[in-house]
Every structure is written in C-alpha cells, then in structure tokens.
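Pasting as-is:
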Amino acid sequence: MKPWKEVAASVLPDGIEIAEWGFPEHSEESFLRARSLCKENKCGSYGTSWGCPPGCDLSVGKISGRFSRVGVFKRRYVVDLGDKDAIERMGEETQTSVRNVVIALRKEGYDCMGFSDGGCRYCGVCAYPEPCRFPEMLVPSISVLGLDLKGYMASNGEELRFEKGSVTMYGFVMMA
C-alpha cells in the first residue's frame, strides 16, 4: 500500500496543504452543543441531506473504534466574504477534493471516510429522506461528528480564525 499522503497528493489540486493529525476525542458536551447548532438550521441543510443531521447520525464516539488518525487538507482563498456564490464554489471544491482523496485511498486499500464543511453536495439535490443514491460518494459535514473543532485544531497547532478578505477551507479524512 502506498503512503496515504502520496496517494492524496496525486489527486489533490495544487495549493492544498496536507497534514496528519491524531483522532479527536469524544465529548458529549461538545456533541450536544454541535447538534443544537445544527438544529438551528442556519445553513438550511438540517433534515435535507444525508450529509447532515438527522440523516447522518455519526459522532466522534461512534467512529472512534474504526478510525485512529485524520488526514487534514486545507487551502486558503482570497475572497470577498460577501460573495456567497464564490464561498459556495470553494466549499464544493473542498468537498470534491475530499471525495477524490477518499476514492483514491479506498482503491489503495485504506479504510477511510471523508468530512468537509456543509451538507454533501454530490447530487445537487439530495434524495433525503429517500435512500442515498451514491453512498460511496457521500461526504458528510464535519459538524455531524460533534467535535470541538476549534479545540481540536488548536491541539494540532492550527488556529480556527476568520479573516477579512480570505477564508481557509478544511477537509478531513478519517483513516484506520
């Protein structure tokens, strides 16, 4: 089996940084807080996508026995934060990158699952609540896991911050 970073680099576009982090710890408090935020549905994806709650019922605790490390991908974009279409395109690009890495890693024999920001965008309009048409292409929101993303990132030397005129998009691939 090829090293996972080599496989990932072979399918990622230029400009994406790759790192490996340890698997996050489960916190029931963080999980409940994240699910509460999801239920507020400010993004409009709650109850409309297999990549978001309640359709996607994953948590750090539920997948911790299966996975032990995380491939992290990030790319900083210079963008007008008021340009919602541009930000959506960046989210789609990030999710596509995660999906491509997962497909490549699985072909290489890795047990893995990808997560990104927002509901899965593969089908355009999700079949939810009907069965997912392409479960092998599903990229759930990182929010479904209920982790303290800011704390998790800080524990790996990364600061989750919001900057004027730019956004950094992250993708996560959980691996055995």
